[in-house]
Amino acid sequence: MLECQICHKLFKHLGSHLYNKHKILSRDYKMRLGLNINTPLVIKEITIKQKRNAATKPTYKQNFLDSKKYQFKPGKRIKRQYISPVKYRQNYEEILKTNSSRKPELCPVCNIEFNNLPTHLYMKHKLIRT
Hints:
Elements: E1 2-3, E2 10-11, H1 14-22, H2 26-33, H3 44-56, H4 60-66, H5 85-101, E3 105-106, E4 113-114, H6 117-125
């Protein structure tokens, strides 16, 4: 058991006690007492038990592969295309040119002007302009 030097009580996990009761961090506690920062504030039996469990635990990857919930389903592979900065800029300028050439049109349903009337008709009114 580890003794708290502030209230002189015994604990297995001293770090959580320090924060919950005395509102100080374990780093501040160690600096106040002149302890090494790497000194654990947990009894050795718990430290050994944690190391033993970590060594015998199956790996995360194996858990992922064994799990039915997270397995990938067969399907098409998506290829990502690289777009050069020059091509990206050309596409952007083309979009700006198209948008600037559009003239506002009046929606026949709601009587409001829109620059892109076909999109508005479909998204708002579920209509397709032919």
